[in-house]
Design goal:
By secondary structure, the protein is α/β, with parallel strands linked by helices. It is built from 7 helices and 11 strands. Helices cover about 30% and strands about 35% of the residues. The strands form 2 sheets. It has a 7-stranded mixed β-sheet, with helices on both faces. A 4-stranded antiparallel β-sheet has the order 6-7-8-9, with helices on one face. The relative contact order is 0.15.
């Protein structure tokens, strides 16, 4: 149900997706024959557009619900696979770039989050680039205690309640989904660890990557504590 709610109501408009893809292509500076892994691709909103640019794109996600939506593609240079981001099922040194968009990092404990980065490094070629699009951890703190209702559609009502744990650096997003047609109430929790820039830098260094650029948003503004996002562009050096 979480995946269905996400697909129906939590995604940016097409214009913002276009802006994100323009940002991706601008800063990655890839050749036309590049291979890109869209890690945690969801229903493929970035993967589709990157493939239309001519890149060879592989989308990986753990959600069969979202991949069922993504697989409505006839593009010969676009593939979708179901898998765990901690163990990317690709041969070593396959990709020219890996992108991880829309705050899709930090789902696990510290050990497994580093394992995600190890898996990314393994999939990348030497000098390959990793783009990590992440909420600003300082902004995530401000979500603590927020509570929002909205209609997913004319039959489903959703409640989001956020709780930030200052000790662990984790944000819990508690959802209540009320389906009036089915007369059902479901509850789910999404739990994310938010790392600061120095923490991310150490983690990336430990797996053989180094940060080469940092942005505060997709307009390439500088990053500071008031930025909406923390976006890092890293390069595989080992």
């Amino acid at each position: 149900m979480w995946d269905q709610t996400y697909a129906l109501s939590e995604l940016p408009e097409d214009d913002e997706t276009d802006e994100e893809v323009d940002f991706i292509t601008s800063i990655l500076e890839l050749t036309d024959d590049a291979y890109i892994l869209d890690l945690c691709c969801g229903q493929g909103r970035h993967a589709f557009k990157l493939a239309e640019f001519g890149y060879s794109v592989i989308g990986l996600d753990s959600s069969s619900v979202l991949l069922d939506i993504a697989n409505n593609s006839s593009l010969s240079n676009l593939w979708f696979i179901e898998g765990d981001m901690r163990n990317i099922p690709l041969r070593k040194n396959t990709c020219d770039a890996v992108i991880n968009m829309f705050t899709s990092f930090g789902f696990f404990d510290d050990k497994d989050n580093i394992q995600v980065l190890k898996s990314v490094a393994s999939a990348l070629k030497h000098k390959g680039k990793f783009l990590l699009d992440y909420w600003n951890p300082y902004a995530s703190v401000q979500l603590d205690g927020t509570r929002n209702w909205w209609w997913v559609n004319d039959k489903i009502l959703s409640l989001a309640e956020a709780k930030y744990d200052y000790i662990s650096g984790r944000l819990q997003d508690h959802r209540t989904i009320i389906d009036f047609e089915k007369a059902s109430i479901d509850k789910f929790t999404r739990d994310l660890r938010f790392y600061t820039l120095p923490e991310l830098e150490l983690m990336l260094k430990s797996v053989g990557m180094r940060i080469i650029k940092v942005y505060g948003d997709i307009d390439e503004r500088d990053y500071d504590n008031n930025s909406r996002k923390l976006i890092t562009l890293s390069e595989k050096i080992k």
